[in-house]
Design goal:
alpha/beta, TIM Barrel, single chain, two-stranded antiparallel ribbon, eight-stranded parallel beta barrel, 10 strands, 38% helix, globular
């Protein structure tokens, strides 16, 4: 089974997205052979681009290219004090619905100790997730708050068994490096909850780490993907060298 490949808008470069717009980048993604395109809310040139009317128009253009959409927001599902951010979740769901997105992605957030998992919080969370036409996923970030294996394990363990098909995870293969978590350990422990994969390798040390394309002989990256579900979409988040490189990278990520 070959997974769908999603091109993340930021792979074309921040300046390109903000100058040319998401629709132009989506056209390039379609030419490269991708099946999906990830819209990045933080890369809109103006807040008006996030209006429901503007998102609806963008979604229509993406679908006309034969692509399906992901709506990504930098908002966190849980606030800095660990409490659920109901308003951020509702806004993300509403924007994703306007875009016609298949997946809506937030950062996990919370504190370094994790997030609230009391019954009242989980009830509000699951009710909101159930109301979303798009699959709600949370991503591991580059900070200890919202970027540790234990925080995700604790959240998913607290969800009722019948709700396991609701909230899911975006597994970013590179982000684990920033909070010094073992990506392979994360893959082994969190694979059942993964519904979307952000693909990248990482170079550099400490805070000066950078996303790069995984090489075809990258055994560590191949081992990561081998532990993760084969049938979930794979997003390319690392930068392309040029337009021709986009097609090369789509083919490479499909082949892993």
């Amino acid at each position: 089974m070959r997974p769908d490949v999603v091109v993340v808008a930021s792979a074309f470069g921040l300046d390109t997205v903000r100058t040319d717009g998401h629709a132009v980048c989506a056209e390039a993604a379609a030419r490269a052979g991708a099946q999906g395109f990830e819209v990045r809310r933080e890369l809109f040139a103006d807040e008006s681009d996030a209006s429901f009317d503007a998102l609806s128009r963008l979604g229509a253009r993406i679908r006309a290219l034969g692509l399906w959409a992901v709506h990504s927001t930098p908002a966190t599902l849980f606030r800095d004090d660990g409490a659920l951010d109901d308003s951020a979740l509702a806004q993300a769901i509403g924007e994703a619905h306007a875009l016609g997105a298949r997946i809506v992605k937030l950062q996990l957030g919370g504190t370094e100790r994790g997030v609230a998992t009391d019954a009242a919080t989980l009830d509000r969370l699951l009710n909101a997730v159930a109301s979303s036409p798009a699959r709600v996923v949370v991503e591991n970030g580059q900070l200890k708050a919202g970027g540790t294996i234990g925080a995700f394990e604790a959240l998913f363990a607290a969800l009722p068994a019948q709700a396991q098909d609701g909230l899911a995870m975006t597994f970013d293969t590179g982000n684990w490096r920033w909070p010094e978590q073992d990506p392979l350990d994360a893959a082994v422990r969190l694979a059942p909850h993964v519904a979307y994969i952000h693909c990248k390798a990482v170079t550099g040390e400490g805070a000066r780490r950078f996303a790069i394309a995984p090489s075809q002989d990258d055994a560590h990256f191949a081992a990561l993907l081998a532990q993760l579900p084969r049938d979930v979409p794979r997003g390319i988040e690392y930068p392309f060298l040029d337009a021709d490189d986009a097609a090369v990278q789509v083919a490479c990520i499909t082949a892993f």
